[in-house]
Amino acid sequence: QVQLVESGGGLVQAGGSLRLSCAASGRTFSSNAMGWFRQAPGKEREFVAAISWSGGSTYYGDSVKGRFTISRDNAKKTVYLQMNSLKPEDTAVYYCAQAGATYYSGSAYSQSGLYHYWGQGTQVTVSS
After folding, report:
1. What is the SS3 string spanning 30-94?
2. Alpha-carbon 109 to chain mean position
């Protein structure tokens, strides 16, 4: 079984930065791609970013490209999301998720159905 625990959320002013972390338990972390999704009140879940098992490839949603950076440390079983130049529209609950494969091709990363395990989420609120 895999457990994912997100941390690092909070309240920040527009233009500020936050770094989210997702700590994983279980043996398969280093063999699986990881992703971040978010969901704002009244909206559907949105893909944010993903990273392959080795960290060699990354993929981002259009709304965060150039502002967010995903990374991972397999020795620590942790994936990170560095969020810069935050905007009020980034306000959401952010979830990390473990995919069922080592990597995907491009936009396949954004398909939530390919992720088998999900964390409980961490709230990010960006004030204007």
Report:
1. HHCCEEEEEECCCCCCEEEEEECCCCCCEEECCCCCCCEEEEEECCCCEEEEEECCCCHHHCEEE
2. 11
Burial class of residue 109 (count of CB atoms within 10 Å of its CB; 0-12, 13-18, 19+): buried
pLDDT digits (tens, 9 = 90+) for 54-82: 999 999 999 999 999 999 999 999 999 99
- Per residue in 93-119, pLDDT tens? 999 999 988 888 889 999 999 999 999
The predicted model gives 15-26 an average pLDDT of 96
Nearest to 106 by CA among 69, 62, 75: 62
